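Protein entry
_____________
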Amino acid sequence: MSQPPTPYQPYGGSAYEPARSAPVPPAPPFAQPIPPAPPVPPAAPYAQPAAPVPPFAQPVPPAPYAHPTAAPPAGPADVPQPPPGDTGRPRGRKRRVFGILATVSAVLPLLLAGGLTYAAIKNHRIQTGNDAFAAVAWHNLRTEEVFPDFLRDPYLTGEQPQGWSRQGLAEQQDCRGVLADKLTEAVVAQGCVSVLRATYVHVGGDMAATVALAVVGSYQQATQIAEELGSERVPMVVPMAVPGTAAAGWNRKLAYAGRARSVGLATNSPPYVAAITVGPLDPRRQYGKLPGDWAISGRSEQKLYQGVADELVGGYARTFDYLANGR
């Protein structure tokens, strides 16, 4: 019969004796708690002396140059540098003076050129009269200039009314035989020298007008004639027919109205009297004389030609005044 197994027995002991606890060895030195360090007393401010600054860290005093913030230009060691009191450049005041002089020298020629141009334009627009020439303009100017191709009023700046075209010119004649009787007596009494005439036709072809320019002694005499005949609206010039034109049938029977006035508006104006005769070109009926119930309208037809005569002679007088005075 076999024996049961023998239980494990530690060395030196019984199998049923409890194990004895081994003694705990002491802790090593490094496991001991570190006692707190004693408090360090605070150091007094600025108690420690400052460490000396090395020579290369010393601040560099500013150089005595003219500009407070400018430094002398760096250059090779063998190139001579300007002395400390001189920057090598002109001072600020000198630069400003030179700049002003340069600006003036550049702008002055432009100002002079502009002034001369303005003076030339201004003088070109100046309109001055020539009294010596105005008195003989009727003789020195060509007849085509005295009586232009078309009659226009220089005072009308807007749209011009329908114009009058020249049909023919008359040769220079004396003061008798070409003007109405009253006007002939007036200009002869005031030293009339000559009379020039031209015939015009309205652009519509329905009216004709003969314009005359009488040369007298002075502007005052011309003004006196205009005052004497200022209320007259009768024909003032003998109608002048122009063969081969629309005014070929223009004659005394068709002359319905007229007017005379001086040329110019001032005491130094030329010594001329402008006169005119206006009428229709249709010889088949008498304007201003209507039959039956229309007879009352006859006066309106006559006034129509009176108004045309006033407008036309005024425009011509102003045109010739401009021409004679070089305006």
About this structure: The radius of gyration is 62 Å. The longest strand covers residues 194-202. The chain has six helices and six strands. The first helix runs from residue 92 to 125.
